[in-house]
Amino acid sequence: MLSTFLKSGTPKKSRKKLSKKARILNLLSNGESVTWKTLRRRFDLRSPRAMVDQLREEGNMVYINDTKKGVSYRLGTPSKEIIAAGIREVDGDNEYAYSNQ
Q1: Mean pLDDT computed over 10-22
Q2: β-strand pairing of 62-67 with 70-75
Q3: Would you say 75 and 61 are in contact if contact means Cβ atoms under 8 Å apart?
């Protein structure tokens, strides 16, 4: 257990603070959609879209839903078509590439 001492010498328990990226990923992992405004206000982000793009680059499948109420984000699983497109991009069009037919 990690503990730090205050000036008075009494121990204070502490835990490492999660990064904004980790907290956003935890929020999206709950399965609910999160609005652009929520990310902007709650996490004090200048550009929530930039953070979403970073999460995508790390391999997380974050979907963007643009509705009349605004933009919202959710975490999901990629479709077979997305997986096939990624494999084609990496391996090219060879006979061993994934096919969903």
Answers
A1: 81
A2: antiparallel
A3: yes
**Per DSSP, which regions of 1-101 are E strands?**
3-5, 11-13, 34-35, 62-67, 70-75
Cα distances from 42 to residues 5, 49, 57, in angstroms, run 30, 14, 23
Strands (E), 38-78: 62-67, 70-75
β-sheet with 34-35: strand ranges across: 34-35, 70-75, 62-67
What sign does the dihedral 48-49-55-57 (CA atoms) show?
Answer: negative
Domains along the sequence of the chain with CATH: 18-91 (1.10.10.10)
pTM here is 0.65
CB 36 within 8 A of CB 73: yes
Joined together, the tokens standing for residue 37 give 């405004």
Name beta bridge partners: 65: 72
Average pLDDT in the 9-18 region? 75
